[in-house]
Request: fold
Amino acid sequence: LEHRMADASANPYTAVAAVLHAARLGVEQDYDLPPMETGDGFEKTDAKQGVAVDLRHAMDDLEADSALTGAVGQMLVDNHIFMKRKEVRKTRDLEGDALRDFYVYYL
Reply:
């Protein structure tokens, strides 16, 4: 299993829980595997659907994901969304070096 979406700023426990839950859903609900990716995964991808383009949209997706919420718990999801929405507000006007400097503190 290879997973490249999480980075050093992700909580390893919630990241692993989300990946394992996605894998469990795939097995239990007999999801079809997509075709093998032939692109580099960064500049060129074959995927028709991707992840949210920014944190704000990712929080909207998480809020709508009842399967993941059921697996990890409503309290964890609510807390995560609350904290990440605060992060969005704090960083919305930051660009370039200022944005990098904000996140470097947490790494």
